Amino acid sequence: MPFEKIVLNDGRVIPQIGFGSWKIPKEVCTGEVEQAIDVGFDHLDTAQTYRNEEEVGQAIKESGLARKELWITTKWSGTDDKGPAQSCSESLEKIGIEYIDLYLIHSPRLCKGDIPGTWKQMEQLYKEGKVKSIGVSNFKLDDLKELLASCSIKPVVNQILLHPYVIKTTTPLLEYMAKHHIVAEGYSTLIPLTGAPGGPVDKPINKIAERLKVAPEQVLLAWSKAKHAIIVTTSSKKDRLERYLAVGDIDLTEEDVEAIDHAGAKGAKWYERQTEGKSRRAAKFAAAGVLGVYLLYRLVSAI
Ligand SMILES: NC(=O)c1ccc[n+]([C@@H]2O[C@H](COP(=O)([O-])OP(=O)(O)OC[C@H]3O[C@@H](n4cnc5c(N)ncnc54)[C@H](OP(=O)(O)O)[C@@H]3O)[C@@H](O)[C@H]2O)c1
């Protein structure tokens, strides 16, 4: 059975798996998005800050598909200090479309302490018909509570980090969202494979993959599906994209999901140490770079 369509709280129907363009270099972006569309993806996820909306738009144009055959999400990322209205107009132009299916506030940080006022601007874009649905991304429980206390139109989704090592801390947010009919869009679900291999989640993932004769990445995406999330993923490889779409046919048992959740909770602290270690190393590397440039500057000035 292929992926189901998910009905949002505004009545619109969104495909349950989307192809994202984060980190795809401009030079290869059009080709990779075209490949995803050819394989069967009908839901594309981009953002102002990914700086490849034009290339995504080019792929859409070259696909020859009618506009209504594709679901297109982009995000207001506050790039160059531009507000939602200006950013939305620019995204429409860059992608080359008349309307955006789903427009998201990329992070609550962009609201600069005024979530209600910022959301009003999103509601205005919705009323003008430039965007068909509106939502948020990276909103924590308190951010969503603040938004729901003042909004006239509810966000349809909250696009969030969703993988087994964060499931324990994210469950209260997921429960609150389910209660208010806000669908989770889960990104970076493959982190146990890509960013933090070697942790406790590997064992149940590999065991389930072996039993079902599928790839580990398919088990992780099937886990996200079991959480009723919309999957936002990506790949530069055709065979992997085909495997992602085949996840529509992979159903985990309750025991499978419990085993993955349990391993994720067990490894949560280990995962935090991994990511903290990585950001510390990145900060040290950046500091060393700045120091190097400064010393070079002093050396050149002294000559
Ligand atoms: N709202 C936000 O703040 C936010 C943040 C992050 C992401 N997103 C959205 O979510 C999308 C997906 O994010 P993501 O890239 O973090 O997602 P992901 O689905 O966790 O990872 C996708 C990556 O995993 C690699 N991969 C897949 N299977 C693998 C395996 N078995 N071993 C090693 N690598 C493997 C793929 O590489 P190959 O190309 O080699 O297949 C691809 O680059 C983004 O493009 C963006 O649209 C949104």
TrEMBL record:
Coiled-coil blocks: none
Residues reported in the UniProt entry to bind substrate: H106
Site (Lowers pKa of active site Tyr): K75
InterPro entries: AKR, AKR3C2/3, Aldo/ket_reductase_CS, NAD(P)_OxRdtase_dom_sf, NADP_OxRdtase_dom
UniProt keyword list: NADP, Oxidoreductase
A Pfam family this chain is assigned to: Aldo_ket_red
Annotated signal peptide: none
Single annotated GO MF: oxidoreductase activity, acting on the CH-OH group of donors, NAD or NADP as acceptor
Family under the similarity heading: Belongs to the aldo/keto reductase family.
Protein name, entry field: NADP-dependent oxidoreductase domain-containing protein
Organism (species): Naematelia encephala
